[in-house]
Amino acid sequence: MEAWMVSLCFFSLSLIIYGANAEPVQDKHALLEFLTITRPTRSLNWNETTPLCKNWTGVTCNHNESRIIAVRLPAIGLNGQIPPNTLTRLTALRILSLRSNRISGPFPMGFTELKDLAFLYLEDNDFSGPLPIDFSVWKKLVGLNLSNNRFNGTVPVSLSGLKRLQSLDLANNSLSGVVPDELSVLSSLKQIDLSNNNLHGPLPKWLLRFPPSSYKGIGLIPPGDVTHFHPPPPDQTQKKPKPHFLGLTKTVFLLIIVITVFITLLAALLFVFALCYLRSKLGIVKDNKLEKKGMMMSPEKFELRMEEANNRLTFFEGCNYSFDLEDLLRASAEILGKGTFGTTYKAVLEDATSVAVKRLKDVAAGKRDFEQQMEIIGGIKHENVVELKAYYYSKDEKLMVYDYFSNGSVASLLHGNRGENRVPLDWETRMKIAIGAAKGIARIHRENNGKLVHGNVKSSNIFLNSDRNGCVSDFGLTAVMSALAPPISRQAGYRAPEVTDTRKSSQLSDVYSFGVVLLELLTGKSPIHTTAGDEIIHLVRWVHSVVREEWTAEVFDVELLRYTNIEEEMVEMLQIAMSCVVKAPDQRPKMSDLVRLVESVGNRQGSLETKPEKEASEISTPSKT
Ligand SMILES: *[C@@H]1O[C@H](CO)[C@@H](O)[C@H](O)[C@H]1NC(C)=O
Ligand SMILES: *[C@@H]1O[C@H](CO)[C@@H](O)[C@H](O)[C@H]1NC(C)=O
Ligand SMILES: *[C@@H]1O[C@H](CO)[C@@H](O)[C@H](O)[C@H]1NC(C)=O
Ligand SMILES: *[C@@H]1O[C@H](CO)[C@@H](O)[C@H](O)[C@H]1NC(C)=O
Ligand SMILES: *[C@@H]1O[C@H](CO)[C@@H](O)[C@H](O)[C@H]1NC(C)=O
Ligand SMILES: *[C@@H]1O[C@H](CO)[C@@H](O)[C@H](O)[C@H]1NC(C)=O
Questions:
Q1: Which CATH code for domain 410-625?
Q2: Does the Cβ of 55 fall within 6 Å of ligand 2?
Q3: What percent of the chain has pLDDT over 90?
């Protein structure tokens, strides 16, 4: 009886202790053993008495602090081999970074126990010997970097089993043999680097979709480039009698030339006719000159007929521009974009200042209502809200004048310039965009007794201010627009489901659109885009379908994968975004709450840690040695 009581008490006591001090005890012991054996040259603050999940450098726990899910120990001076049965006991590990140390010995085969690994970074060490034969044990692997070691042997065919693999770096090793053709099935793969190994043989076709730097220095000859490497001696070709063009006889050849000349002449005639016809057409629509010239992107003067010469630009207080409507009309204009409510031009004034001029169409409001709404919009002065400088209202023209942002919109930074010289948008900037935009929209929502609606939140309406924080524009216009204006389709992809039915935007539909912008920042994908197979993808639906599974790494933009320490933040941001895009408006968070949530993720690690590939940037030691 007594023994029973005592054991019950003891049981509850241990529960209380456990509850107050919840931490992954087993995982902790494994890490402490690892530390005692390896003795890195840089000291870690892993004190048995301090709470591991909160205070240990380079260690991340899951949300209920029951397991360790990430260990990042870059450049802490680890030497020798990884002791067996230490790190391999952290079986919930998703991220392991031991890069930039001096670890030697073979690939730690015990890592096959770490079946949840999504990111494994062992680059810049002294590992040697063959790679594991069977990679299929790491089914969840998304990023693998083994570059700058001394691995030898062949590239394992089993890598082809990693269906989620997005980034594979085996560069600067001593791998030999051929590149397995089987790897062509890696459909998620977005980055690969096999350069500087001893690989040989034919270059597989699937590899050609990656930039040549991915396979430079491997001694492979691209199949199409064989002649390039063995050009025939020039004098030999001179000596040979010149064969007839395409091997045709002289008569046929002449006939072809005559026909070609005839067709060319005919085409030229047609072209001249078409030009004359178009010119006469253009004359008829002279009224649209402004738009036409802008569309052709020629920075010509735009002349706008002023029917009401007495109308002036209305400036807001504190505006330091000094120009008149006439100056504006004399300025050279260039189209910046066609938006939901009209076309925006960049106008360069004679004193070389640039402003953005929005030419509204489908304005339903009368002059008084329009002016009232402009006063509300122009009254907002906030670092995350693009300031309205001036406006103009006449029967035929409604203009709004804003500051011009030379960096372009977030949409163009994310989706524009996909070519060779693309500058990826880094994580820190993306977070600053999200935080800034959230603050800006929250500020707008406080205006007009807390009733003002942005109504047009999308990435092409968010800019980077001088501190590279997000800054929102193009708000408050739904109130003056004709309700039946067709351009609502331009907002497709950002529009909350209830707006599709009622055509009435609200603060909660702004939250939905903001959620879509967050998804855009995280995935790098446009809200509506087409796949290679011409399938139309709605970003929100797509993310839902991918996130059904527990590990969601593959939704993220590959440009973010080079940051080895932000996966948890990305997952948290994803959760915030998903809470914004729920169907029921009243279940979405308020903008003011979102500011707090997004900021808490964004400010977690501080800017120091989000720089990619900088030594010691991944760990936050209070006292660096
Ligand atoms: C751990 O922390 C306790 C108190 O915080 C301190 O007394 C002890 O010396 C520390 N141990 C080590 C090994 O640093
Ligand atoms: C542990 O971390 C918390 C907050 O991160 C800090 O306030 C506290 O001083 C730390 N404790 C130790 C012993 O380092
Ligand atoms: C912690 O969360 C995981 C799921 O992430 C769950 O499997 C586990 O049972 C939870 N542990 C505790 C102690 O709540
Ligand atoms: C790989 O390197 C080790 C020494 O580090 C050597 O013993 C072995 O023969 C090499 N294997 C191959 C296939 O080159
Ligand atoms: C490989 O080594 C070269 C020369 O040391 C270096 O420039 C290059 O960045 C390395 N590649 C990778 C992927 O680390
Ligand atoms: C792998 O690590 C090397 C060395 O730190 C780095 O240069 C390279 O960009 C990384 N590869 C990928 C795909 O991130």
A1: 1.10.510.10
A2: yes
A3: 37
